[in-house]
Automatic annotation (TrEMBL):
It comes from Mortierella alpina. It is found in: Lysosome membrane. PANTHER family: ADP-RIBOSYLATION FACTOR-LIKE PROTEIN 8. GO terms for molecular function: GTP binding; GTPase activity; metal ion binding. The keyword Lyase does not apply. This is ADP-ribosylation factor-like protein 8B. CDD domains: Arl10_like. Belongs to the small GTPase superfamily. Arf family. Pfam families: Arf. GO terms for biological process: cell division; protein transport.
Amino acid sequence: MRDGTCSTETQKNRKKRRDPWQRVCTKMTKAERKGNFPLTPYYSNHLLTHSSSPRSHRLQQRRIHSHARTLDHLEERNTQDRTERYSEKRSALYNMASLIQALLDWLRSLFFKTEMELTLVGLQNSGKTTLVNVIASGQFQEDMIPTVGFNMRKVSKGNVTMKLWDIGGQPRFRSMWERYCRGVNAIVFVIDSADHDKLDAARTELRNLLDKPQLASIPVLVLGNKNDLPGALTVDQIIEVMNLKQIASREVSCYSISAKNQVNIDITLQWLIKKGKGK
């Protein structure tokens, strides 16, 4: 009985010695299901890595550590994937914004950009070509070559593009005026307000031009250029000398300007742009 009792106690002691390992394995299995692999307090590094520990526990430790490394790798890969997806979404949003902006610019240019045609006429040396150059570049050039025939120049001001026809003012080119004034948004008649000897000829040419049936109802802007010179006429004097008050069949405006000093060029552009927009 004593031997049997001792034998039974020995077996119980062996079971008790095995119980901690079983409890460790059980706890580690529960922790594994939760996704946590703490080294303490469930088991000891020394205990599980010691050569005297059971082989099953050493294998369990390797499996747990391998699983942990796999989870770390997956987490790193997921982070990298999220970063790549974020970069792709950001790039897609940027491309979409660029596309929308390009579409808006195209629609704006299609519906809001205005193109207009203007014809500048007047006697020679009145400053038509100089005025066109100032409008286009904002710079004044002292010596300009007289226009032979005609010149055409496109000028953009904001969303308005103006096609300017500069027609020569010599007597042999005056017959061309009516042809290049057909269908334009406005006629700009330029005179030298300081050259009194040519005012009568300028008045006659303006009246002959406006009497053409094809040019009926086209607005006219009379510009008295070179008001920086001595003896230049004022606006009221230009209106009187050119008989502008007698013109009732169309809109007529008159400004005194200086292309050289860029005086009243801004209000001239405002008038032209309004006519281009149909105001």
